[in-house]
Amino acid sequence: MAKSIKILNPDDLIPWVPDVDKLRRDFPELEARGVAVGELTSPGELEDLELPDLDVVSYAKDIPCVSVTTESGQVFNFTYMDIARWNGPDCDGYSVYSDGRFIYFLIARVASQAGSLGIWSIESKEWVCSISDECLCVEAVLYLSKVGRFLGRIEWAYPLTPHRGETLFLVDKAGNLSEIALEETDPPYRYDAIYWRTVSFSSRPENAWMAIDHSETFICLCHGNSCSYFRVPVRARLVTAR
């Protein structure tokens, strides 16, 4: 587990701060248009200026955002560019946690509609997974050491429409994500901290989390007061949904 995870700006995982010098160099016409470049406060304000071939991420300062210290004393620092390169500039909510092997970034770009998943390997010191997409609203994810894959849950919904969905998914160590169908089961014991290891927390305000028993035989997935249990699939029986 991580000894400490410090979010340098808790209100916004990846605060956008304009790189004023770069903007003035690349778009000198802005000042002639009366734009106070130093007073821009969001990527949306920059996009509203309708500049040609604009990448708002590249015009942000690469400020420190997250610092993770492991139990062994290793320190990993993540800057704006480390995260925004694959997530983009938007962040409606987030969760950052570690299980001692990996550091997980669950980001809601637009609440319940679009999101991102980043998984950083402490051993290899590189991203195992860094994906962003519509409906990729990851509620929880954890590592299954016996099968060498990550298991997680997605739930998405478009407001004021009937369009919504939920699914379980697997991510292999190459960063490929695929949906998976697992049957619910009754475990030999219900949720009790003595049997389960909780390592996953939601990027959304609802109480959603995932736990795995110490033998890595069962998964407990909870949303609010409702818990579902699944048997961990062995490699030979992994069946992805079509």
Question: Which percent range describes the beta-strand content?
Answer: 35-45%
Strand and helix order: EHHHEEHEEEEEEEEEEEE
Mean pLDDT: 86
Please state the CA-atom Rg, rounded to the nearest Å. 20 Å
Tally of helical segments? 4
Oligomer: single chain
Number of strand segments: 15
Give a quick account of the main beta sheet: strands, pairing sense, barrel closure: 4 strands, antiparallel
Helical coverage, percent range: under 10%
Unreliable spans: 236-242
Shape, please?
elongated
Strand order of the largest sheet: 4-5-6-7
Backbone structural class: mainly beta
Distance from N terminus to C terminus (CA atoms, Å) equals 35 Å
Features:
242 residues, four-stranded antiparallel sheet, elongated, disordered C terminus
Quick synopsis:
Helices cover 10% and strands 42% of the residues. The chain has helices spanning 20-26, 29-32, 43-47, 80-87; strands at residues 2-7, 64-70, 75-79, 93-98, 102-110, 114-121, 126-134, 138-144, 149-157, 164-171, 177-180, 196-201, 208-213, 218-223, 226-231.
Can you walk me through this structure?
The chain has 242 residues and is mostly beta strands. It is 10% helix and 42% strand. The strands form 4 sheets. Strands 4-5-6-7 form a 4-stranded antiparallel beta sheet, covered by helices on one side. Strands 8-9-10-11 form a 4-stranded antiparallel beta sheet, with no helix packed on it. A 4-stranded antiparallel beta sheet has the order 12-13-14-15, with no helix packed on it. It starts with a strand and ends in an 11-residue tail after the last strand.
